[in-house]
Amino acid sequence: MFEIGDKVVYPMHGAGIIETIEKRTILGSTREYYVMKIPFGDMKVMIPVDNTEEIGVRTIVTEEKIKEVLRALRLEITSMPDNWNKRYRENMTKLKSGDIMQVTEVVRNLMLSEREKGLSTGERKMLLNAKQILISEIVLVREIDIKEAESQVEEAVFGQTVKE
Quick check: is 52 in a domain? Predict the structure, then answer.
């Protein structure tokens, strides 16, 4: 069970801070919810307390893991299916996992693909979402602003030096 002030990751939404725990009645059912604030766009998300484990909500990673993420962003593109649908499904599965290293792989591969040959509209949206998920966690772990976290990701992927 998480507490107010905990920094957590909600797969497919990103990292945020639990601001409150509230009881709400939705569709006739009263449940307890974590209300989490995500750094991007001052978005708030309600997470049912009794589902956090099956949804995959987890605490944010350590600074050491962020260093590993930035190193992984420097790697070459990994093989992806040529078929757009299969590639999209595989990437979506990685994003839904909530695993920061799988999210990192999606971000790196899509950013490099975009630079090489461009992305379809669907993959561009996926890249935007994946970057937000990754950047939101970097923001909370390193206690930096969104712009600084974005630049660390860009620098890592495109080969400039990364501040660790």
Answer: yes
Which strands make up the sheet holding 7-10, listed edge to edge?
43-48, 29-38, 14-26, 7-10, 58-59
Phi, psi for 47 (deg, rounded to 5): -120, 125
Q: Which domain holds residue 145?
A: 63-157
Is position 164 within any domain? no
Q: What is the pLDDT of residues 73-114, one digit of tens each?
A: 998 888 888 888 899 999 999 999 999 999 999 999 999 999
Q: Which residue has the higher pLDDT, 31 or 41?
A: 31
The CATH number linked to 17 is 2.40.10.170
Residues 76 and 105 in one domain: yes
Confidence at 164, pLDDT banded by 50, 70, 90: very low
